[in-house]
């Protein structure tokens, strides 16, 4: 897209990479901290880890996620990135958002079920974050050309169907 914002593309990319690096680092580091929420550790250590993970999630990782998604959305329009690799990237971003929610759930349940909470296995959440991160990095850096992919006829051709309501015409 040619427009007044085009010269700002490198700045948006730099901002995007900075925020997504924070987001991804948080999604790997937080589960590792959360796995230390063992009921066997001392009350003081438990409270300290609880505070750190809570503030890291709410003041660091979640704002970074929102800013990474927002700057990525702006970049889609600035770079005219309406391509199959981009749509596949969004599927993996969705998986990353689910992992983000899972980590948030662990932070909350750790706070609300003090003493009873069983920490998740230290490997599960980092792996759930790592797989989509690797897939996204591969897609965005390689930008594979999916034009050779053959879709079923019913997905690529109009089927002459009728919407059950009147669509507004321009
Ligand atoms: C809704 C979320 C996201 C959207 C809409 C989005 C969109 C974009 C767009 C349009 C670009 C510019 C691509 C180009 O034309 O070169 C870009 C760059 C990039 N994105 Fe995202 N992105 C999102 C999330 C992420 C996440 C979660 C990661 C990593 C885990 C990521 C990694 C990157 C990287 C590394 C680049 C730089 C590529 C380069 O300059 O060669 N993005 N993103």
TrEMBL record:
Keyword Transmembrane: yes
Pfam families: UPF0093
Keyword field: Membrane, Transmembrane, Transmembrane helix
Transmembrane segments: 12-34, 54-78, 85-103, 123-141
UniProt protein name: Protoporphyrinogen IX oxidase
